[in-house]
Amino acid sequence: MSSAPDRNQPESLTGLLGGRRGAIDATLPPVGFGIGWWISGHSVWGGVIAALLIGIGVAGWRLGRGHRPRSVLVGLLAVCLAAIIALRTGRASDFFLLQLVSNAASALAWTVSIAVRWPLLGVVVGVMLRQRGRWRRDPALLRAYGRGSWVWVGQYVLRLAVFIPLYLADQVLALVTARAALTWPLVAACLAGSWWVIRRSLPAGHPGLRHPLEPAPVPAAPPGKPDATG
């Protein structure tokens, strides 16, 4: 029996990257902030306390289930930074300022990655599949990752288009609702959309993400005939 990997093995970005767990975890503290802010009579402290309690609870639960401490603590740190910003300014909507900056920076980073032919979608999937840079040596795969990465740029731009007017209008509960609606549902749509773009971009017969095609070696030039005058 051949031990070669099955090139027909089903694959998808959702299966490779997941994303649901992290997106849900990131949504809970902002929702808690909005509920705490509203129940406490629009007190920033009330919202911050609720967000921190939920953030600590999520972090403890994830650590108890054996998840990597670094990713858990990064999520908790983001909640703490958002809380500090809101407390320093005294403006509840500033709890979401870090989210605005993060989405703007992500949109820029993904766009630049496409322009320099290191699309971040390929970088992330390549790391997950332990391919290092092999995927970049496959022109079809490189092109597909570049096109698929534009879907992720669109995700961040859409969030900014929704968040910025609500932030400027100081609509705290609307920001909470938008954050919940544009986290896991949007991530799921982005994963499905970018996977569809990649599949449409790869030529027929391509073995898929797990098996980048190496370029054909250039044949060596035949040795030249000896110079008759030499």
Automatic annotation (TrEMBL):
- Bilayer-crossing residues are 35-59, 71-87, 107-129, 150-169, 181-198
Looking up Pfam families in the UniProt record yields:
DUF3159
User: Sorted alphabetically, which InterPro entries does this protein's record hold?
Assistant: UCP010219
Presence of the UniProt keyword Cell inner membrane in the record: no
Q: What UniProt keywords are attached to this protein's entry?
A: Membrane, Transmembrane, Transmembrane helix
Q: What is this protein called?
A: DUF3159 domain-containing protein
